[in-house]
What we know:
This protein is an all-alpha fold. Helices cover 68% and strands 0% of the residues. It has two helices and no strands.
Amino acid sequence: MLRHEFQPGRLVAGTVLTLAGIIYAGDAGGAWETPWFAVIPLVVGGLCLAGAVALLTRGIRRRRGSARLADPTPTDPQH
Length: 79
């Protein structure tokens, strides 16, 4: 059994923010040179993408949930 439900929007947000942290860590460590403004579009775009994924996931789960409520299961004691 799962401890919590899978949330793809949070996965996308975490991945993008981790990537932004790696970019800044590489710059701080001297591995490469990153302009200070380069990560802003990455973070903003990633958070917008995460929000879109979360809305899509919510819509899919809502539609599946309403379909499950409409169709009684064979183990339903009322039927």
